[in-house]
Amino acid sequence: MKIVVDAMGGDAAPSVVVNGAVDAAREYGEEILLVGNKPQIVEELKRYGCVRCRRDLPIKIIHAEDVITMHDSPVDAYRKKPNSSIVKGMKLVAEGCADGFFSAGNSGAINAAAHMILKRIDGVARPAIAAILPTLTNPCIVIDVGANVDSKPKNLLQFAVMGSVYYKNLFKVEKPKVGLLSIGEESSKGNELTFSTYKLLEASGLNFLGNVEGRDIPKGDINVVVCDGFVGNIVLKLSEGIASFLVRLIKDEMKKSPIRIMTAAVILKSVFKHIKKKIDYDECGGAQLLGVNGVCIIGHGSSNAKAIKNGIGVCIESVKNNIIENIKVEIAKVSHLSCPIVAVPNGGN
User: Which of 161, 169, 289, 323 is most buried, taking the most CB atoms under 10 A from its CB?
Assistant: First the structure.
């Protein structure tokens, strides 16, 4: 297996990316294609004892002159920087020279390049980004978290199908529980989008359990939460913010009264460590862009080496589980469903 890694993507690239790629090569044993500025990559590899690359570890460098920054316009960057690490890396997957793609770079540019180069899976109207969120029990996938600001009911139906396939492949759950994010659990709560989507999901054959509220996501009762990208991105960013807030709050409180809580801190050290691990997005590694003809993982811009390594791991698992072909099969099963015309009772409140 060959996994493309955008060496120039991320706030601390290429240093952190190369570190994570080296760790991934050592742990997973699959070949890593580092795409980016070759001299910089070589210097970083030397820091980890990889002077001869492919002899020491299954790592190959593919030079790319251009770099798409976080401030570049997604579409303009794709057109004006054809020799960038994102574009060249994506083409390797499209041409069959690699099996998957990972980048912690400009998510908009990654999305645009995937649309242009990998193309959409037949039958998929709009690809969507699926993010893994931690919960009290099992991980939860929220889809879409930013690929589409506005969506139609048929789009959300396809998001649910793709998210269900992704969850089944990644966590080995035969019938993932699917929920529709709304302002209330009752089927009478919501707006025109959620009402119409609700009817489609009922007829989809998925394990659809109805509406879920935002506060229900951390409980872990639902495996796949479906929403449009505008709402999903807010959910994702708020979740990340709360996680950071909780960790910081615990640390600050411990510093205020170090003598009084020293004994308790020693006892609870392992507990705090476990909590941080559970709510840390580094454990998930990245979000997958579902609906394009290729495995594409988008990492957080501030990803550390651990997150990079885990993102590459998610990419490898998706390739092994043949997720693209599985999505094609399941999307075909709901292609006959059409959007129902429904009335919104009492304004959906």
Answer: 161
Cis check: omega of the bond before 6, within 30 degrees of 0: no
pTM: 0.87
CA 6 – CA 285 distance, rounded (Å): 14
Three-class HEC string of 131-147: EEECCCCCCEEEECCCC
**Residue 42 identity (one-letter amino acid):** V
SS (H, E, C) 12-79: CCCHHHHHHHHHHHHHHCCEEEEEECHHHHHHHHHCCCCCCCCCCCCEEEEECCECCCCCCCHHHHHH
The values of phi and psi at residue 225, to 5°, are -105, 125
Written as one letter, the residue type at 348 is G
Which candidate, 141, 182, 193, places its Cα nearest to that of 340? 193
- Taking the C-alpha atoms of residue 13 and residue 9, their distance in angstroms, rounded to an integer, is 6
- C-alpha distance from residue 229 to each of 76, 235, 282 (Å): 22, 10, 22
Query: What single string gives the DSSP state of each residue in 239-273?
Result: HHHHHHHHHHHHHHHHHHSTTTTHHHHHHHHHHHH
User: What 3-state class would DSSP assign to 123?
Assistant: coil
Measure the CA–CA gap between 66 and 239, rounded to whole angstroms: 33
Rounded CA-CA distance 177/198 in Å is 14
Checking if the pLDDT of 255 tops 90, the result is: no
Report the candidate in 135, 130, 132 with the shortest Cα–Cα distance to residue 216: 135
The rounded distance, in Å, linking the Cα atoms of 287 and 298 is: 5
**Token duo for residue 50:** 């990889």
Strand order from edge to edge, sheet including 140-143: 59-63, 31-36, 2-6, 100-103, 295-298, 287-290, 128-133, 140-143, 224-226, 177-181, 207-212
Distance, CA of 187 to CA of 213 (rounded, Å) = 12
pLDDT 10s digits, 187-200: 888 899 999 999 99
